[in-house]
Amino acid sequence: MVQIFVRDNNVEQALRVLKKKLQREGIFREMKMRKHYEKPSERRVREEAESIRRVRKLSRKRFDS
Predict the structure, then answer these.
(1) How far apart are CA 17 and CA 6, in angstroms?
(2) Would you state the pLDDT for residue 65?
(3) pLDDT value of residue 62
(4) How is 14-48 classified by DSSP, letter by letter?
(5) What pLDDT is attached to residue 64?
(6) What is the pLDDT of residues 51-64, one digit of tens each?
(7) Residue 26 covered by a domain
(8) What does the pLDDT read at residue 45?
(9) What is the pLDDT of residues 1-49, one digit of tens each?
(10) For residue 9, which phi and psi values (nearest 5 degrees)?
């Protein structure tokens, strides 16, 4: 559960922190995905593509370092 504290009645800063945390946890992306039904076959294809992208990114990072 995400918890944000408002300090000195600074709601704008608390909202910025909340958005950053939600973005980092992928909640915005998940909400966007759940807006429409996704067929199981489409889901498999998407997850496989994401996995390939993740592996390539990781290998690039290892190669550059």
Answers:
(1) 10
(2) 65
(3) 87
(4) HHHHHHHHHHHHTHHHHHHHHTS---HHHHHHHHH
(5) 77
(6) 999 999 999 888 87
(7) yes
(8) 97
(9) 778 999 999 999 999 999 999 999 999 989 999 999 999 999 999 999 9
(10) 55, 30
The answer to whether residue 6 sits within a structural domain is no
Alpha-carbon gap, residue 48 to 54, rounded angstroms: 10
Tokens of 49: 């593509």
25-53 burial string, b = 16+ CB within 10 Å, else e?
Answer: eeeeeeeeeeeeeeeeeeeeeeeeeeeee
Are 38 and 32 contacting, i.e. CB atoms less than 8 angstroms apart? no
Q: Which amino acid is at 31?
A: M
Report residue 17 as tokens. Answer: 């922190």
First to last CA, the chain: 35
Does any domain span residue 22?
yes
- Overall number of domains in the chain: 1
Domain range for residue 32? 11-64
Position 46 in a domain: yes
